[in-house]
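Example protein was shown:

_____
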Amino acid sequence: MKISIITPTYNAEKYIEQTIRSVLEQQSEEFNLEHIIMDGASSDQTASIVNEYVRKYPGIIRFISEKDKSLYDALNKGLMQSTGNIVGIITAGNVYLAGALLKVFHKLNPANELALVGGQYFCKPDLKPIKKIVPKFMNNPTILSLVDCHVGDSSVFFKKEFFESLGNYNLQYIYSADFDLYYRYINSGRKFIIMEEALSKFIISDDQLSTKFANKQMQETMDFIKYPNIYKISKKTKFSAVLWYLLRIYQKVV
């Protein structure tokens, strides 16, 4: 059995090393591990940093650097390269907690479901926790539509069959294709296995795409409630999402 971890990067020299180290620390005798780093042709020292680890860990670290259309385009390319039975995604700067992948392996591998989501710490750039997010509502489409109720990708794991069944990330969405993927999964009749235990630390900083493009992500996410035939979104869900969106705008203004 193998776990594949995919990390999309672009000019990530500041954070990439701590992410690579956290993945390497997950090695176990119970599964093989590969870490695929999909770089968007960075112009900083990202390549030289990663290549040093490729030389030290040739059977684990794989590095591919080429231009991509978006973060999700890089992830789709990484999925095509992956050879693991279980796939996880972690962006540069974020880290796994000790033993996280082994816990995921024991929980997800024997299960009938195709995806698992665990808790996550939102942290400052120095990795000091700000708050813990427990994804209790990932299987509730009404609450999931509020977006802030789900965790970042580094605490979400999939069996390879997940993508074979649902397809990859939809490149129509530049900032929220992960949300689209989760919604498609729930509406297929499947459920996430939910672990309340934290599996990763997610950095909140101006360098992170989720922080830098938060407003654009909010605007794009509103597209999901415009297509009720695709996402089977009820009037209640649509109303909740509109209220959430207006609240976020209000919070920005005041």
